[in-house]
Amino acid sequence: QLQLVESGGGLVQPGGSLRLSCAVSQYALEYYAVGWFRQAPGKEREGVSCISLSGRSTNYADSVKGRFTISRDNAESTVYLQMDSLKPEDTGTYYCATFRLFTGTCDSPVKSWGKGTLVTVSP
Question: How far is it between the farthest Cα atoms of the chain?
Answer without folding.
Answer: 40
